[in-house]
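Now for today's protein:

——
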Amino acid sequence: MRLWERALSRAGIQVAYSEGFSPHPRLSLAAPLAVGVTGEAELLDIFLADNATPHWFTDVVGNQLPPGIRIQGVQQISTLLPSLQSQVRSAEYIVEAKTGGMPEDISSAISLLLSKDKLSWYHERDTGRREYDLRALIDDIRLVSADDKKCILAMRLRCDSDGSGRPEQVTRALGFTGYPLSILRTRLILGS
């Protein structure tokens, strides 16, 4: 968020601010990335104090972004539409994981996990233990490639107000012992 606030400020863009005791810029990520996860198609709502054309906005703000970050598109929308956060339904990921097994073993683990109706899971939070059905958060998993050292998995996980699937939990459910080598979110899927 700080990156966008700084880029907008340097570009001279007048961002609208919330009202109340502690006003803040009206910027909202559709689905914030977890620490250690990279993204290549992130969505952001930005409310401006003044009108701006998408082309002008892209040029002016794009020049203020650091290498590796670029604006892929800008759309002007009505303030009456629901927020991006409320429209996110799922996310797609490419996950690279260390493996000591054969590709057939990974494929079998994926088939077994996807055949389950329910997969009880939990994680610890500051507020205590949270239990849920991990299987309900998994739309699809497929093996992209594998050798005896690592594999690449593609996943589509639910990401909405009822819960969000996390790639590192899915790899653990598949039997991988370590944290994934990399997690890239490639797409957010919106619905109404």
Summary: Residues 4 and 65 are 8 Å apart (CA to CA).
